[in-house]
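Page 42, continued from yesterday. The earlier attempt failed because a stray header line got pasted into the input along with the sequence. Redoing it now with the clean sequence only.
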Amino acid sequence: MSLIASYIGLGAGLFVAAVIFSLAIRLWRADKLEREKSAARVKSPWDAIRGHARTQDDYLPDARVRGGLVYNKRLKRLEISGRLSDDTFERIFR
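This time it went through. Structure tokens are written below.
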């Protein structure tokens, strides 16, 4: 029984290691120019996850950011929310 559990643990560990290794290679091979253009829209990676990307640049809408309105329950008001579009991520991780 203990031998089977150790094999299952080894398999799970190898799977997690393969996923992390795959992610590291994709980040290393990412298009640096597209990444820098998209990074100019957000202040930190957490802002990109939470949807705080700037939707406009010099009053012009940007195709890299998908904008919308969200209701802030804590402040009880509508706010502009911007999220990097899926096409932007596809251009970065070709």
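Notes: Residues 2-28 form the longest helix (27 residues).
Reminder to self: strip header lines before submitting.
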